[in-house]
Amino acid sequence: KMAAAAGAAAAAGLWSEVNRCGQNGDFARALKSVNKILQINKDDVTALQCKVVCLIQNGNFKEALGVINTHTKVLTSDVIAFEKAYCEYRLNRIESALKTIQSASQQTDKLKELYGQVLYRLERYDDCLAAYRDLIRNSQDEYEEERKTNLSAVVAAQSTWEKVVPEDLGLREATYELCYNSACALIGQGKLNEAMKKLQKAEELCRQSLSEDSDVTEEDIEAELAIIHGQMAYIMQLQGRTEDALQLYNQIIKLKPTDVGLLAVIANNIITINKDQNVFDSKKKVKLTNAEGVEHKLSKKQLQAIEFNKALLAMYTNQADQCRKLSASLQSQSPEHLLPVLIQAAQLCREKQHAKAVGLLQDFADQHPANAAEIKLTMAQLKIAQGSVTKACMILRSIEELQHKPGMVSALVTMYSHEEDIDSAIEVFTQAIQWYQQYQARTNHGCSVFQPKSPVHLSLIREAANFKLKHGRKKEAISDLEELWKQNPKDVHTLAQLISAYSLVDPEKAKVLSKHLPSSDTMSLKVDVDALENSHGATYVRKKAGKLTGDNQQKEQGQGEVKKKKKKKKGKLPKNYDPKVTPDPERWLPMRERSYYRGRKKGKKKDQVGKGTQGSTTTGSELDASRTASSPPTSPRPGSGAAVSATSNVIPPRHQKPAGAPATKKKQQQKKKKGAKGGW
């Protein structure tokens, strides 16, 4: 009895120590006292609960969960459900935490709070939203602001990842967390300018709230603002301001924030900006996405986007095996997703295996008909890149859900026109128009009452008619033009086209239709001519036109005077003009440009002086004056057909046309060459 009394006294002292340490927040000392109590009584339920709490407060979640699992007989689910679920949640065993919460017999407020967190991590946003609404409705304590913040975070996640239009929760955005979540919801809706204003307000509120604490430094404030600045940079990136976004991203990385999720997202966004450029920087940034714990901080779609970008980066860095490995892994995780197979096809194209890439895409389209449209568009693009335009058209026409779309019709008509296949282009128009006719019949439920056609339908008919008229298919265009005129009898342009088409096919019909054209009186515009001419713009144009007109008149008068002077002049004949001799056809050319020009004869003998060996003199024969033009040369001149003797019957140069023109041209070329500068 005395021993039992001593043990009870010791236990009481230890319990008082545990209570004092718990109030002071010294859970390490409290844990020591709890362990001493358990040495006295190892199955003490209260002591075991205190030990689990002390371990949780010290961050030893794994050890705390081990204590719970080893004492399951004592620590039942009703006693320790919250602590067990919380340990599993912190150890990222989210599914186990959900099962623990759901198996608890009594759903306490603590379990409901944790239940909302678990649902958010599991991305079950609808259930999470309902859980937080129930908590806010049925709770009144100092944590109401935190619950509203969590509720706004759920709405932001729905808007971002599920593209759900968020409902107005009526929350007063008094804290920077609420402003930040509201901005994220606006980003999900594409309202980027409004989201930027919300983020600026969140930044201002954050600075105000943190500056009130004297212990908080400027570095601490910047670290807290990092996530807000990250969203600002993301908005800039979406708006195309990539340089500003990149600068802000790098500033955040320099701060070295402790949030690995934030760093991973920023690094991924920088990689998307770099694309196939600045690959070395991208390879450094991709290491931040591989940090420990990133997979628990980001959503599934964020992690998936990072993996896609890793595969693309491997392709851009010519790591073909790594690219195939990553894309195959992504495809196994998401068999119906398009990007993995598109990345594989792109890698095959880089390896010049276009046929294999098309086959890969075709297999995917056959296996997943729901995604076949986008895959077939890619296949058509590959065919166009190979120059197989006709095959690309066949692939595009096989996409039934896009055949009637104006963009698809335009693309097919353009490609068929490029291939000069006008019949196929007209067939594309016909099929699209028929689709709209059938759609109209379905929507009218067989009603015989005349219904106006949709603007897209009328636009297709008009484009078809214009195309047929352009390519000379007037007979085929008539039915389209009549349909358009029937829809709008006041359309004068369509009526004019219809008359023009009938004029070549049925002139009588064209005459009948021409009676529907408005008269010239009805088409005249009621314009106040005086007011129009007195307007400022008309006055300026009139003055400018007047100046130009005056200049033109002066020029015309001057030209008229010149013409009159030319008419007054009488033609002069040369002194040696002989009407019996045919005039020289080259008489209007300058002397140097005539075929019989021989050059100047002056200085001919001077050119010969100094030629020969040094110190030699000219012989008498060279200076003999008896060798005149009357003496026939010993040999003909180069290029001349025959020697021409100088007789008394010499024809004047203006009337004669001697042979030897080629030789003269050669001499002219030689003279031109003499003027050129030579080089060593």
UniProtKB/TrEMBL annotation:
Record region (Disordered): 543-680
Biased composition (Basic and acidic residues): 575-596
Protein localization: Cytoplasm; Endoplasmic reticulum
Keyword Coiled coil tagged: yes
Basic residues biased stretches: 563-573, 664-680
Coiled coil stretches, renumbered: 94-149
UniProt record, GO biological process: SRP-dependent cotranslational protein targeting to membrane
Residue stretches of each TPR repeat: 226-259
InterPro entries: Signal_recog_part_SRP72_RNA-bd, SRP72, SRP72_TPR-like, TPR-like_helical_dom_sf, TPR_rpt
Comp. bias (Low complexity): 610-643
SUPFAM superfamilies, per the entry: TPR-like (SSF48452)
Residues covered by the Signal recognition particle SRP72 subunit RNA-binding domain: 543-599
Family membership: Belongs to the SRP72 family.
Protein name as catalogued: Signal recognition particle subunit SRP72
Lineage of producing organism: Eukaryota, Metazoa, Chordata, Craniata, Vertebrata
Gene: Srp72
